[in-house]
Amino acid sequence: MTNKELIFSNITNYCKQNYNFNFDPKNPIIRLHEPTFGSEEINAFLDQMLTTQVTMGKEVRKFEEQYAKEFGHKYAVMNNSGSSANLLAVSAIANPLTKNNLKPGDEVIVPSLSWSTTVWPLIQHNLIPVLIDCDPKTFNLDLNKLEEAITTKTKAIMLVHVYGNPCDMSGLLDIAKRHNLQIIEDSCESMGAYYQNKAVGTFGRVGTFSFYFSHHITTLEGGITVTDDFELAETMRIMRAHGWTREADNHQEYVAKYPNIDPRFIFVNLGYNLRPTECQGRMGQVQLPKLADFVKQRRKNAAYYIQKLAKYSDIFTFQEEQKNGYSSWFGFSVVLKNNCPFKVKEISSYLKNKNIENRPIIAGNIGNHPVMKIYEHRMAGNQDASNNIMQNGFALGCHQHIGEEAIDYTVNHINNFISNYKK
Known about the structure:
The chain is of the alpha/beta class. The protein folds into 2 domains: 46-290, Type I PLP-dependent aspartate aminotransferase-like (Major domain) (Aspartate Aminotransferase, domain 2), CATH 3.40.640.10; 292-422, Aspartate Aminotransferase, domain 1. 39% of the residues lie in helices and 14% in strands. The protein contains 14 helices and 15 strands. It has helices at 3-18, 39-51, 58-71, 82-93, 116-124, 143-149, 169-179, 230-240, 251-257, 278-287, 291-309, 344-353, 384-392, 404-422; strands spanning 75-79, 107-111, 128-132, 154-160, 182-186, 194-195, 198-199, 206-210, 223-227, 316-318, 325-326, 332-336, 358-359, 378-380, 393-396.
């Protein structure tokens, strides 16, 4: 056995002995997330480290091609986070060299129930976010309110498939077509989700995904943008790394066009440094084949939560799966009804004291956060559903290491809380 093989063997043995993230009734802790990776990913990451070739290169490109093929995209551009994926997508679509680009002052419809870095790239590119309330059942954009908010300035919809639940893409595509609107899909919470058997992220001009530690699969940090538009993919490759052409598919065309500039450093656009590493590319290659099973477990968990908590339908509502959708259940959401005798802080604090982690649902209504007072935006129509979710909702873990025993533990403590509260 070589020294490297011995290292990998020791890591594998270490993980077998020390990695057990399943529910332990003797030490009950239910986290919002547990690692999706183990010795296989660690060894792949380390194997790449040992080559000392860690800067973005062929392993990242290999993972991009693997990811695109898995979900039916023509092109995929990996980057360093889901937030960066959103930034890169908006930057490319708002770039002056992009055909049919978004321009400063254009309005972009975005869900009120969303995350900060869904909205920030719009503001950063002098676009005007128009915040739309959600459907209280699916948590996704309310299409009636969306259409009412469209003006002559509206040029795009940046949707979110909330907590892995696909939006009504038939309705959204119909609205977008009738009003000539571009669609950007923030799918960072919804990897592995489908609408009418088509993967989310494939409906719009560009889609974004996240590989953050707490998401469906991980490269520790990381994200990816996907598109069927070659020119847009090229722009994102260029903008991902400084604005140079080095990683562009048509790099040689730039070399021929600018023979007096060093081919390694031809800058043709604005850019950032949003590059992932080769180690992350290797890790992603190992993680991706595991996604489908992780999603299946999440779906089982959600169904079991609903079954066990159905008796509280008089005081709780739960996120409903979109018709014709296949949710990947990023988390399991509970919203207290108006007649509920207790407050979210009371039950969430109680559960935390019982080692059951929980959290707000995304950022709640992002329009209600103080930062929005600084920047131009528009709150379109009433925001009742998003406000209610923000004030009365919380989310429980739904990940691959949660099963019926863990859910029973959670439900038993919910039962105890409600029973004691009524007394």
